[in-house]
Structure formats: structure tokens, C-alpha cells
Specification:
Distance between the termini: 54 Å
Number of helices: 21
Structural class: mainly alpha
Strand content: under 5%
Shape: globular
């Protein structure tokens, strides 16, 4: 291995995201880490989020587990910061404050009524960060711990572990038809519409909004932003627009489906293919019944598989077309590999290992409960929450306002989501209405 390649493996943030993600997976698999704390729900007393409830009775609290999580993630990531040439102690100090804000964000999102409105931790983390950065300002020591991309990319590697290929088989061809046909179509049409009709100048902003709308919301926006090197302000804007409309759609779509007497399975597939957030999809599907909730959730999870594919395709397109120098030679395969975000390798690798190695070896119950349910999914949630707090701390409304000139990003989202709603409803009717495939529900 050349010195350059060896150096990249241990000094590039993308590769450290892969190492962090797989270290968490190995720790879960070997039993070194058996659980990652998850905050509970609360109604009137915010401190109830820290209680461990068994059979309706408080049997302890998670304060100790949160301290271990704070130290574990802090030490692990601080080592990576040191290896990448940063100052680990300065990072750890800022990271500790970011972690505290993440706990507050998660706690707010667990309030019963707030959960019903679908306002998840991403919204509150982003809001807290924006409030700080746009009022008192974000001090340098705090910014040192706001490692947005490191948190995001590590979380995406862990997300890959949740994309199990057996999920594809649960709905079979109808689910694939709805989840995989419409999303790429909408993404491409939105990208063309944003550049040619709306005349938006930032290709990366158009691409991130298109991915956020067409694929699966926040996770797709994050992955695509990394692939096309979008600015943090562009990612913040895309996610903010998406979160607002997600809440509206989560409430409106089930009401509309009931009002018009739509077949609930067709409606569930429609919800799964259009509402951006997985949590909001499950909440909306549950309003139609248990069976509809299951169909909606699985359609969304099957659609989530496109995250890695889309991020890879966008990275290749950016290298070979958008960033290509017209006077330079066509980029070689090695140049594409060099410039492609390496977290995609971790994302796809984790998905393949969990689907075709760990599941056959240890069984679905062990993998889904002992590894995914107890460790990696919760850890990924904390990393994403840290990332959204960091995005807010690094952004300000002046930068966001500059991206909203003429309201073009909002129009791009509205037009794109309208197209998404129409095409996905058509696909859901064809796939689950007994037109192209036999009805399975």
C-alpha cells in the first residue's frame, strides 16, 4: 500500500467515519457494548425521559448510561480528531456541550404531544443550534466540537446496518415498484426543473432538495449533501423545508385517505413512498390501522435502500460532469474512487455484512434485537442528533435567507413533492390495487 493511501485511511474524515461505525458494530457483536441508552416518553415531567419503566413502574434511571455514552463517543471521536491533526482536548470540551444540547433536543422530542405532531429530534437539535448561533453567537470553543460531517457520516455507516435485504422480500415486486420506480424519476425531474425552469444557480442545493423530497428525507439529504459537497447552509435549508412539510403531510394524508374512502393498503403504500421521515411514515400509517402501518413502514424502509445508491450515483455524476474541467481529460476510475465519499463504502458494506453474513449466522432475532435494536440504531440516532445541533451552531439566518432569494427552493420542493404525490399514488394503485400484481393484502 502506498504512503498516500495509508495516510488517507487514517487521516481522512470519510475513512474515520467508516472505522467509527464498524467499531460500534464490532463492540455490539462481541458484547463489549450491550445497549445504548434511549430516552423515554414523558407527559408533564421532563425528567421522566431518564427513567427506566418496567411494567408501568420506574425501576431505575439512565443517567449512568448517558455518562458512559458521552465518554465513549467523546473518547472515540477525539482519537479520530487527533489522528486527523486536530486538537482532541479542545474538541472534547466543545463536543461535551454539543452532547448536552443533543440530550435537551431528544428530551423535548419525547414529550407526548410533540411526538404526536411528528416534531422529532432533528427539528429541535437544529432549532437549538440556530437559536444560539443567531443570538449570542457560537463561540470558537463550541464550534470546535461541532463536527457535523464526522457525526453525519458515522451515523450513515450505522444506518447501512439497518438496511436489511430481507425487508425487500416482505413486500416483493409491488413494494419495489412503488419504492424504487418513482424516487429516481422525481429526483431527476426535480434537478432538471430547478436548473432549467427555476434557474437556480446552486446545483448542489437543487440536488439536496431533490434527494430530500424524492428518497427519504433527512438521511437522503445528508448523504447527498456529502456526495455533492453542498454547503452546510444548503443542507440546513433543505432539511428545514422538508421537516415543515413532513409534519403537514403526516397529518393531512391519512385524513384525506379516509375522507375519499381510498383502499387503506394503497393509501399506506402512498404514505410510505412520499412522506419524508420514517417516524412520520409510521405515525401516519398507524392512523389507518396496524396492517397499513406495516405496509407504509416497509415501503419506506425499502426506499431507504436507495440512499447509498443515490449518494454513489450523485458522487460519480459530480466528479464526471459537474466538477469536471472541460479542458481536462475525462476522469479515470481511480479519480472517481479518490473523490467519492468513502462513507458510502461503509454504508453499503454494513448493509451487505448484516444482510448476508450476520443474519444467516446469528439469526434475525439476535441481529435485530441485540445489535440493531439495542446498540447501533440508538447510537445512530444520537450521532444524527449531534449532527443537527452542530448544523444549527454553524448556520445563521442571514446565510439561509440568501439561499431563499425569490422563494425558488420552496417552489422546487412544492412542485417536486406534488409530482411525487401524483406519481407515487399511481404506482401504489398499480402495484397494490391488483392491476400489475396479485393483491397480497
Amino acid at each position: 500500500m502506498s504512503e498516500h493511501k495509508r495516510s488517507q485511511l487514517f487521516t481522512a474524515e470519510d475513512w474515520w467515519a467508516v472505522w467509527f461505525g464498524f467499531l460500534v458494530i464490532i463492540a455490539a457483536l462481541t458484547g463489549v457494548v450491550t445497549s445504548v441508552p434511549k430516552l423515554g416518553k414523558w407527559v408533564d415531567n421532563p425528567l421522566d425521559v431518564f427513567l427506566i419503566i418496567k411494567d408501568g413502574v420506574a425501576s431505575g434511571n439512565i443517567f449512568g448510561a448517558l455518562v458512559v455514552l458521552w465518554l465513549g463517543l467523546g473518547v472515540l471521536t477525539a482519537f479520530g480528531v487527533w489522528a486527523m491533526g486536530g486538537k482532541p482536548w479542545r474538541y472534547f470540551f466543545g463536543y461535551s456541550a454539543v452532547f448536552a444540547f443533543a440530550v435537551v433536543s431528544y428530551s423535548i422530542s419525547q414529550q407526548q404531544q410533540i411526538r404526536a405532531y411528528g416534531l422529532e429530534y432533528a427539528f429541535w437539535g437544529l432549532l437549538i443550534g440556530l437559536l444560539i448561533s443567531n443570538t449570542v453567537g457560537t463561540p470558537g470553543w463550541l464550534l470546535a466540537g461541532a463536527k457535523t460531517e464526522m457525526f453525519i457520516k458515522t451515523g450513515l455507516v450505522l444506518l447501512g446496518a439497518e438496511i436489511l435485504f430481507d425487508k425487500i422480500l416482505k413486500l416483493g415486486p409491488p413494494g419495489l415498484f412503488v419504492a424504487w420506480l418513482v424516487a429516481p424519476t422525481v429526483l431527476i425531474l426535480m434537478y432538471i426543473f430547478g436548473l432549467r425552469w427555476l434557474k437556480m444557480t446552486s446545483k448542489s442545493l437543487v440536488m439536496v432538495i431533490a434527494a430530500e423530497t424524492s428518497v427519504c428525507g433527512v438521511s437522503a439529504a445528508i448523504a447527498t449533501a456529502a456526495a455533492c459537497k453542498a454547503k452546510k447552509e444548503e443542507l440546513t435549508l433543505a432539511v428545514g423545508i422538508g421537516l415543515i412539510f413532513t409534519v403537514l403531510m403526516m397529518i393531512a394524508m391519512p385524513l384525506f385517505i379516509k375522507a375519499v374512502g381510498m383502499d387503506i393498503i394503497i393509501g399506506a403504500a402512498w404514505i410510505g413512498g412520499t412522506i419524508d421521515s420514517t417516524g412520520a411514515v409510521i405515525a401516519a400509517g398507524s392512523m389507518l390501522g396496524a396492517q397499513a402501518e406495516k405496509v407504509a413502514a416497509v415501503v419506506k424502509m425499502v426506499q431507504n435502500i436507495l440512499i447509498g445508491v443515490v449518494a454513489f450515483a450523485v458522487a460519480v455524476y459530480w466528479v464526471t460532469s459537474v466538477e469536471r474541467d472541460a479542458n481536462a481529460a475525462r476522469p479515470s476510475a481511480m479519480e472517481i474512487w479518490r473523490r467519492m465519499p468513502k462513507f458510502i463504502v461503509g454504508f453499503i458494506g454494513a448493509s451487505l455484512i448484516f444482510s448476508f453474513v450476520l443474519m444467516p449466522l446469528f439469526g434475525a432475532e439476535f441481529v435485530e434485537n441485540r445489535i440493531l435494536g439495542a446498540v447501533t440504531t440508538n447510537c445512530r440516532g444520537w450521532l444524527f442528533c449531534l449532527a443537527f445541533v452542530s448544523i444549527g451552531l454553524e448556520s445563521n439566518f442571514r446565510d439561509l435567507a440568501s439561499q431563499l432569494v425569490g422563494g425558488k427552493p420552496i417552489w422546487l420542493y412544492i412542485v417536486g413533492q406534488s409530482l411525487n404525490l401524483v406519481l407515487t399514488l399511481l404506482a401504489a394503485w398499480l402495484a397494490f390495487g391488483g392491476i400489475l400484481f396479485p393483491r397480497a393484502f
